[in-house]
Amino acid sequence: TIEAVIFDLDGVVVYTDEYHSRGWRRLCDDQGWRFPEEVSDQLRGVSRMESLQIILDSNGVSATGEEKEEMAHRKNEYYKTYLQEVDESALVPGAVDCIRELRRRGVLIGLGSASKNALTVLRGLGIEELFDQAVTGLDITRSKPDPQVFTLGGQRLGVSPERCAVFEDAVSGVEAANAAGMISVGFGPTQGLDQAGADLLVPDYAWLDIDAFLAGTLWS
Ligand code: G6P
Ligand code: MG
């Protein structure tokens, strides 16, 4: 039985994944670099500095440590500007209802996000009280696919890994959940979640039968 569900934030609870992409795209425009669509998917779940490195590599350019710091900072300033527009319309449809349904059934809820802005997003939307524990980019030293963010979440919730499920839109996040020994739910339209080894693919919250999910009958 599942006793806790840990949700990723960007692309699973809120469509802030699009705002991250916009921030990187704007940085690329500033620099005269390309920002291909497939790179956008690769940045899901990946920390700020590692995301920048992926963009640099995909453009075949190098930068000094100082230049990287400045560019990562600039992207974050763009992202924070976009966050000011985030309201309920940016919530992934059904996410809050799903969390409330799980809570009603006594399931503990965690947040497991690589973002250092995660709590700002939750507070801005007034949904922080839906989460019993939140682990964010400020709490971790290793990025997904390392399991740290979820392992720490499970520990803080006091639930053993095999009784935790993780909702993730990122390939790196599904890999992290699997490495943590948790049930991995690949959420949304990202390519490659199946190949990454997701235990269950959930295209959207309307698809999800919560009772069947908690009973464990949706995956083998
Ligand atoms: C999440 C997003 C990534 C983002 C990362 C770091 O994992 O999916 O796109 O790069 O958080 O976010 P931050 O707000 O700390 O730059
Ligand atoms: Mg995500």
UniProtKB/TrEMBL annotation:
<dbReference type="GO" id="GO:0050308">
    <property type="term" value="F:sugar-phosphatase activity"/>
</dbReference>
<feature type="binding site">
    <location>
        <position position="169"/>
    </location>
    <ligand>
        <name>Mg(2+)</name>
    </ligand>
</feature>
<dbReference type="InterPro" id="IPR010976">
    <property type="entry name" value="B-phosphoglucomutase_hydrolase"/>
</dbReference>
<keyword id="KW-0479">Metal-binding</keyword>
<dbReference type="GO" id="GO:0008801">
    <property type="term" value="F:beta-phosphoglucomutase activity"/>
</dbReference>
<comment type="similarity">
    <text>Belongs to the HAD-like hydrolase superfamily. CbbY/CbbZ/Gph/YieH family.</text>
</comment>
<feature type="binding site">
    <location>
        <position position="168"/>
    </location>
    <ligand>
        <name>Mg(2+)</name>
    </ligand>
</feature>
<feature type="binding site">
    <location>
        <position position="24"/>
    </location>
    <ligand>
        <name>substrate</name>
    </ligand>
</feature>
<dbReference type="InterPro" id="IPR010972">
    <property type="entry name" value="Beta-PGM"/>
</dbReference>
<dbReference type="InterPro" id="IPR051806">
    <property type="entry name" value="HAD-like_SPP"/>
</dbReference>
<feature type="active site" description="Nucleophile">
    <location>
        <position position="8"/>
    </location>
</feature>
<feature type="binding site">
    <location>
        <position position="144"/>
    </location>
    <ligand>
        <name>substrate</name>
    </ligand>
</feature>
<feature type="active site" description="Proton donor/acceptor">
    <location>
        <position position="10"/>
    </location>
</feature>
<feature type="binding site">
    <location>
        <position position="10"/>
    </location>
    <ligand>
        <name>Mg(2+)</name>
    </ligand>
</feature>
<dbReference type="InterPro" id="IPR006439">
    <property type="entry name" value="HAD-SF_hydro_IA"/>
</dbReference>
<dbReference type="InterPro" id="IPR023214">
    <property type="entry name" value="HAD_sf"/>
</dbReference>
<dbReference type="InterPro" id="IPR023198">
    <property type="entry name" value="PGP-like_dom2"/>
</dbReference>
<feature type="binding site">
    <location>
        <position position="51"/>
    </location>
    <ligand>
        <name>substrate</name>
    </ligand>
</feature>
<dbReference type="GO" id="GO:0000287">
    <property type="term" value="F:magnesium ion binding"/>
</dbReference>
<feature type="binding site">
    <location>
        <begin position="113"/>
        <end position="117"/>
    </location>
    <ligand>
        <name>substrate</name>
    </ligand>
</feature>
<feature type="binding site">
    <location>
        <begin position="43"/>
        <end position="48"/>
    </location>
    <ligand>
        <name>substrate</name>
    </ligand>
</feature>
<feature type="site" description="Important for catalytic activity and assists the phosphoryl transfer reaction to Asp8 by balancing charge and orienting the reacting groups">
    <location>
        <position position="144"/>
    </location>
</feature>
<feature type="binding site">
    <location>
        <position position="75"/>
    </location>
    <ligand>
        <name>substrate</name>
    </ligand>
</feature>
<feature type="binding site">
    <location>
        <position position="8"/>
    </location>
    <ligand>
        <name>Mg(2+)</name>
    </ligand>
</feature>
<dbReference type="InterPro" id="IPR036412">
    <property type="entry name" value="HAD-like_sf"/>
</dbReference>
<keyword id="KW-0460">Magnesium</keyword>
<dbReference type="GO" id="GO:0005975">
    <property type="term" value="P:carbohydrate metabolic process"/>
</dbReference>
<feature type="site" description="Important for catalytic activity and assists the phosphoryl transfer reaction to Asp8 by balancing charge and orienting the reacting groups">
    <location>
        <position position="113"/>
    </location>
</feature>
<dbReference type="Pfam" id="PF00702">
    <property type="entry name" value="Hydrolase"/>
</dbReference>
<feature type="binding site">
    <location>
        <begin position="8"/>
        <end position="10"/>
    </location>
    <ligand>
        <name>substrate</name>
    </ligand>
</feature>
<protein>
    <submittedName>
        <fullName>Beta-phosphoglucomutase</fullName>
    </submittedName>
</protein>
